[in-house]
Amino acid sequence: MADYTTITAGNQQIAVRKDVRIPMRDGALMAADVYHKPDDTPRPALIALSPYGKELQALSLTMPAQYRPSVLWDGCIEAGDIARVVSEDYVHVIGDVRGTGYSEGEHIGNYNAGGTSLGEDAYDLIQWVAEQPWCDGNVGMIGTSYFGSMSVLAAAENPPALKAIFVNGGHYDFYETTYHGGVMWLMPRAAREGRGGDSGWAFTDGVKSRMLEEFSPEEVRARVAERLTDADVAGWPNMFHLLHYPKNHEAWFDIVLNDLDGQWYEERNPITLAKNITIPTYLQIAQGRGWTMDGTIELFDTVQGPKKLDVLPYPPMNSRPFVDAHDEMFAWYDYWIKGIDNGVMDGPTVSIHVEGSNHTETGTQFPTREIEYRNLYLRPRHVLSQTPEPLGPEYAAPESFTQLPMTLTNDTAMISWSTATFTEPTQMMGTGAAHIFAALDQDDTNFILRLWDIAPNGRRQLVTTGYLKASQNELDEDRSTEGNPIHPHTSKNPVTPGEINEYVIRIYPFAATFMPGHTLLAELSNNEPMSDEHNSLLPPDAFHLPIGRPTTTTVYRDALHESRLVLPYVK
Q1: What are the Xaa-Pro dipeptidyl-peptidase C-terminal domain coordinates in residue numbering (predicted)?
Q2: Residue pair 107/206 in contact by the 8 Å Cβ criterion
Q3: CA 174/CA 87 separation, integer angstroms
Q4: Whole-prediction pTM value?
């Protein structure tokens, strides 16, 4: 008699093994659901792991794919299309990471920093699955976003049964996942706590705060008090609340208390670990959220085995339930796991969709073409020019904008600069930099830079972004190059109010062609609009922590202060 039940999805019969218990090396039992064709044939398995709950992932069997701005889009239904996996003759294994859902054990911190490594758990699960009679001993990974990050952590442990990984839309550098240029991004809060289009983690008593576990109550109180001296944090009700009441907010509590990069983030950083990956790795990322593209490219450069990189078209959010990219995924796994010679390795190593011209560039690395960095200077009258301003500040007077906190206004104050209309297609590809000479009337603020492609009819599409906490302006001089500034984000240096400083903002990688009749618009602000042409495509909580004090930013762009963008023009 079969030890599974059978369900019907569409016109397909699927065998389901519910709540399978898998022992970890420390004795904790991980819970997983297993889906396959209703017979006993051994098949390769694709494993999905997250803290979002395996029950939630089963909605892919009953809910059509949703795309933003659908209100049914749920950012946590990411394990893949169960029916499609089964129809392609794979076993789909969906597990709850330790301390979440129906799994035992303690989940301490994020990616279990300081606790049991999620990569080690993934190793144990992969090897257990490979030994089951319904598996033929070959394993891959599946899922987007958090699931993609788990694929990298698993591969870095080198389990023998894991033959290849296919990663779509992963988040990697843990610090950069939550602090963009030092500016706190709130979407990870949504993914953990269940807010604004996300169901959140399947919290249990096994999810614990590393800060509360490692430090005495007195030390925790001191850290909380210090964090509340940040007006941005103290002025945002959710931040204020969780710092006083961390229960059921443990994962986010730890992130808020650790606003600088360092060992806490680095010890489980997937990019740091990726040098250990030698199995075939296929990476995909969509344009529109530059920090994910940045991390994906860095990961691609780090992994050691056969690899491919696809930079996909805008917009940035794929479907939930996650059903996108399955064609490429199955071609990859059919080749590397099933041994089917389908030509998947005959194509280019790197494939880049170029926005604007909507064509594809191919090559062996990103950028795929030779580039040269050119300056676009910020000039009076909101002009971006290829030539610098010849007049000094007494004639080319600076201009200011004042951002009030959201307790007083929902408006976003900003300054913008625009190029003349392009007369011929102008392609750019790579990272960039913004050198902004500015004076503040406070000791800190956010710099938020957004670059837009403006069509002749006024339609705007976001090209890329840059973020910088003013107090974290220090550069890593050894690693930074022209057009590729790198900030360590390991310390804060409060700004002297009234002092003119040069702030260097990293512009995240992008690939775009500005077509004839179009213009490039650069917007600089301290906050970002809650909703506009771009943000309406993101979940409601996918914005950055607003500033908490009235702040006036004075921007200088004159002969003595050459504020400029440094952009990667394709030769």
Answers
A1: 330-566
A2: yes
A3: 35
A4: 0.96
